[in-house]
Amino acid sequence: MTNSTAPLRLHTLLADYPNTLALKKGEIRSPLVNFDFADIKVANQGFKPLVREAKFDAGELAIVTYLQAKVYGKPYALLPAVVMGRGQHHTIAYNAERGTLKPSDLPGKRVGVRAYSQTTGVWLRGILQNDYGVDINRVTWVTFEDPHLAEYRDPPNVDRQPAGKVMLDMLLAGEIDAAIVGDKLPDDKRVKYLIPDPQVAAQEWAKKHGFSPVNHFFVVRQSIAKERPDVVREIFRMLADSKKAAGAPGSPDPLPMGLDAVRHALDFIIESAVQQKLIERRFSVDELFDDTMRALRA
Questions:
Q1: How far is residue 135's CA from residue 219's CA, in Å, rounded to a whole number?
Q2: Can you give the pTM of this predicted structure?
Q3: Which of the residues 32, 64, 100, 261 could staple to 234 if both were Cys, CB 3.0 to 4.6 A apart?
Q4: What is the mean pLDDT of each run of 10 residues along the chain (298 residues)?
Q5: In angstroms, rounded to a whole number, what is the distance separating the alpha carbons of residues 224 and 234?
Q6: Rg (CA), the chain
């Protein structure tokens, strides 16, 4: 790959978020880069092809999936650029028809989650363990999908369900006690937030820790990162401009950009990934990035 006057065309995985719309609509342009966006509306549907087949030149990737991809030598480099982040306290729910449930009640219980390595689940378990004192190793985590990384094996307290099982149906039937349901509660009056006033709790958590949870970062092929640092810098610039076009995201910023801005959130998720047996080695934040990436500033 050599420098050329023609822009580099990148087959790219990127969902529609307020902070990516200007980029995806072509309002943010570059003489160095053209994005060929994959027709995938929900980003996590592209994570397996990215890490298993190296299908994309660039795109978003859940941070826990990236940590595991680094363990298994997948050919992608990480930019210090978050494209999706949010509070996590609202993502876990229970069936109030079966009685009240609190975080402290979870040890000994069965909790559903799409996949054990899902980044939302890792954040939520880290919060439950470190801020609510929950022994997450005494919870049985009931899962419905394989990890994105084919090489990874779930720990013993994970109970993978056969095809056809549906998490919400199991919650309503009492086959599981709680479930990490994601960004929105199911449309059923029986389903309630496990953590009371979760939006307030999330704001207080972010204020206490000085950062918001981060879910998806941007990655690029290692060969491109190595041979075209100008392209990497331009991608970062375009992501920052697209974010700016969407307006202020809040404080603490759920979409931090630059090494200093992402450092504390990465420290937390790396520690959580080790605690939860998702990775064996505790990476330092700095070793996740090469020299070009470490120099990027929003």
A1: 33
A2: 0.95
A3: 32
A4: 74 98 97 97 96 98 98 98 97 97 98 98 97 97 97 98 97 98 94 97 96 98 97 98 93 96 98 97 96 93
A5: 12
A6: 19
